[in-house]
Amino acid sequence: MASSFGALNFPSSLICRAAPISSSSPSSSSSLAFDAAYIKRAAELADKSSGFTAPHPNYGCVIATTAGDGDRAVVGEGYLYAQGTTPAELQAVETGGDHCRGATAYLNMEPNHCLGDETAVSALVQAGINRVVIGIRHPLQHLRGKAVRALRSEGLLVDVLGEDLQCKTIEESIKACFLVNAPLLYRASCRVPFSVLKYAMTLDGKIATSSGHASWISSKLSRTRVFEMRGRSDAVIVGGNTVRQDNPRLTARHGGGHLPQRIIMSKSLDLPEVANLWDVPEVATMVATQRGAKRSFQKFLASKGVEVVEFEILNPKVVMDYLYDRGCLSVLWECGGTLAASAISSGVIHKVHAFVAPKIIGGKNAPSPVGELGMVEMSQALELIDVQYEQVGPDMLVSGFLHPVPDLTPIIPSVDETSAIDPTVSPYEASIIFFYKTWDPYGAFSNFSLHPFQMPDGNGDYYSWPSVEHYYQAHKFVGLDDPVAKSCLEQIKNAKSPEEAARLGRRTQRQRPDLVRSDWESVKTDIMYRALKCKFLTYPNLTSMLLSTVGSVLVEASPHDLFWGGGRDGEGLNYLGRLLMKLRSELMANSANSNTLQQNEVHKFP
């Protein structure tokens, strides 16, 4: 699948940010050329999962050995398929085997390294890797630099492009590393999802005829490319007029697993009762509207399974803030000119993809892709930067950025760095600790974290579950004789990622509620607790992490799951947070009892 990102011009501070740290780093032009090529290959590997699972930090790893004559050979490669799956580094060292001893590992981005998620660093150390070359440091403050320090403390030579290695050869490799994780970089720096505006227009700048007919302006090849763009996104946004005029499906018909949520922005809820977007068994739909709009229609949408979210004032900025809180990394806007103009004016659009078809339709009243922006002079025009041109069938795809990828040079030290400077500052002082995505500071609390555990099945045999989410979703169908339920159970067990397991379980529950065990609502919290307890007891570091939160309220920060999460405004039941606090209390009690027994033994036998 082709990458959706083009080349970028980055601030010089990102390319040559610091003086070299390691005097033993290879410095010959040939060595740097190898380093640059392998880092670029790691970025290409990282892009492989895009479009087939939910957007997440994209990791690739290449392991290469150096022969006596200076020639290099790749012995292992890997890439992260999804959050909660085997890290790229572990895949690469498992492929390379004994050849990894003394080899060099190339990573497009510094790996996650925190309490509860140390697999990547451990894999490289245990494999005997001698040197690690990293394209860019991790953009999230709580992870930035931690893996670099951990690797160096284990005696590995670590070179970061633009810091320890500096030359023109590596600039393109650094750009590739930034591009493959552009959504994460925007989220980390700007605290908004990475937003792309896509539209198709004729040579005379029209997106539909005067009557509103728009099917099809672009070619089939261009539409296939759009399906790929959707597959790389967490959500696809349209306005009410697009729903009324086009009745779109907004699906990603590429045959992959990931299906982005469909979002409609409509202040008045003047929407048709019959629409493809109300068909939600396969793909979820959310309608964002103004508070109080057409209550009767809101009830109608709810009866269809469509989520309705009300805002005091509906505009692109508040919707992006909401999606940021919801954990979105990337959003695709496929709206009409009015909403596109509003999104651009709000500053939430970062990149534009324009498909230009070799057609002319004319029409004074035919709509254009972007509505009124209030500009009266050409000098006010917004200019795209790093523009790319690509022929897609008969069409021309013009892409460019409205805002460059931000400079992530840290300004404020992270909590860990501050604690190292001032030990009186504790990272656990907050009275409320939120967790949601696996890359968050407390991401190991998530059901999607990669912490396999074993639990007995009905026959007394033990089965290894890749994640808590796999276990939870599968147990909706445990004990049922129906062949469809059994098939779904096996599919969930074998799902490649927790996200896929969740999608399979939720979809079957929506489509075939009769297949879900009859006692599910009464046992689901017990099932979740059993899985959580087994997970935390399996990993002592997770137990330590949970006990370190004593005195704090744990809240699963999902704004839309009002049962397991805390909800958008604290209206959720937060059962996941409650169960973790219950487990924390149980672990504390067990620890206290153990200490008491040890003290008694000491008194008995002085």
UniProtKB/TrEMBL annotation:
One of its GO terms (molecular function) is hydrolase activity, hydrolyzing N-glycosyl compounds. Keywords: Glycosidase, Hydrolase, Multifunctional enzyme, NADP, Oxidoreductase. The keyword Ubl conjugation does not apply. It catalyses: 2,5-diamino-6-hydroxy-4-(5-phosphoribosylamino)-pyrimidine + H2O = 2,5,6-triamino-4-hydroxypyrimidine + D-ribose 5-phosphate; 5-amino-6-(5-phospho-D-ribosylamino)uracil + H2O = 5,6-diaminouracil + D-ribose 5-phosphate. Its EC number is 1.1.1.193. GO terms for biological process: carbohydrate derivative metabolic process; riboflavin biosynthetic process. This is 5-amino-6-(5-phosphoribosylamino)uracil reductase. It comes from Buddleja alternifolia.
